[in-house]
Amino acid sequence: MAKLQAKYGQEKEYLQAVQEVLESIEDVYNQHPEFEKAKIVERLVEPDRIFTFRVTWIDDKGEVQTNLGYRVQFNSAIGPYKGGLRFHKAVTPSMLKFLGFEQTFKNALTTLPMGGAKGGSDFDPVGKSDAEIMRFCQAFMLELWKCIGPDQDIPAGDVGVGGREIGFLYGMYKKLAREYNTGVLTGKGATWGGSILRPEATGFGALYFTQHLLHKAGKNIEGKRVALSGFGNVAWGAATKAKQLGAKVIAISGPDGVCEIPDGITDEMIDYMLVMRASNRNKVEDMAVKFPALAKFTPGKKSWSVKCDIALPCAFQNELNGDDAKELIANGTWCCCEVSNMGCTPEAIHTFQSNGILFAPGKAVNAGGVATSGLEMTQNASHISWSAQEVDDKLHFIMQSIHEACVKYGTQPDGHIDYVKGANIAGFMKVATAMLEQGII
Ligand code: 2IT
User: Fold this and answer.
1) CB-neighbour burial class of residue 68 (10 A; exposed 0-12, middle 13-18, buried 19+)
2) FRET label pair with 262: which of 19, 30, 206, 253, CA 20 to 30 Å apart?
3) Would you say the CB of residue 317 lies under 6 angstroms from ligand 1?
4) How far is the CA of 366 from the centre of ligand 1 (A)?
5) Would the pTM of this model clear 0.90, i.e. be above it?
6) Is residue 61 part of a domain?
7) DSSP reduced 3-state for 312
8) For residue 107, which atom of ligand 1 is closest to its CA?
9) Quick one: 353 and 233 in the same domain?
10) CA distance 212 to 198
11) What's the pLDDT tens digit per position in 151-197?
């Protein structure tokens, strides 16, 4: 860590993600001198390569705009590079390096053969027209297509990139490659190679994982109050499944504030989350404007100020800090499953764990998204498409396997389960073993 600090002192998110993993694996690493001899950690913390490119496009006023595009190909020990694209004004190499690093371990947990990657741009979709989004996606793919391929690197969505964007990206890829390689991107439309349930998969998988965690602790989700953050694709899937399982979703949020829903979210409100996402306005207040009798908007507040049993961060890294964790605990929260990548700060995780709150990290909880991307790749490679039931059964099995891996590697001498250690050690052992067997490269 000291060496990385000296080299990458400015890259706060990246250093935070690496620190968490290295702390978790310290003991097992020291039990395996062969890892140390092959300098596995020194190799694992550096991405295989990073592509950086200029993306120039024309906005609706006819003005020329320039953004930066990136693809971080982090690790390919267990399969081709795989991971989403993030379009957000705050995107930096540090953010994409942390996400690519996390993705490497997450993908290892899925049981499927996928390496780790992440990419994106500092393009800000907020306030853009559909035509501007299309032109940006096309310009982005003009560069990205040279770095990717169905057996090489397979991007998908992340914050700011959903089905609409994947469609525009694929349209341009197809034109450039002059081949119908659906396997080059996942999260595609259902009529042209997309897997059924991929849009829901991150949120559904997160709730399946939460169910296993609660069951192991002798609890269940029925009737519990769940506070979510965000209102995008991940929060939408999580709200849908939480409601189906009998929980009451009492808060969603956005960068503008929180919407409290004291009687629990309705199906109409869940559908409206999609409309809000497609509007590019990025305002959760729109929910309270549409459903004034059911939802109350408070500007500047987070979901963590709302009394709940279970907190599910579904938006962005570090969206739940130490003070938020204390406020939740004071209000009676007893479980937090991170659905966003690195949604909790180290202080928040420490506060939860030292107060006996059930806590599980994003790389285990949210892995159902990329796992279903893996299932989409399998369907594309074999030119078939599975039913919703088949995909859901496989997603269930994968989330159960991830939970079991966390229990196997995370059970402490006193019997309690440290899900952070469990997920990090399980992911690390798989990647490290593959790197060792493939020699010094
Ligand atoms: O963080 C993630 O796992 C994703 N954004 C999904 C990546 C994927 O390739 O489906």
Assistant:
1) middle
2) 206
3) no
4) 9
5) yes
6) yes
7) strand
8) 3
9) yes
10) 21
11) 999 999 999 999 999 999 999 999 999 999 999 999 999 999 999 99
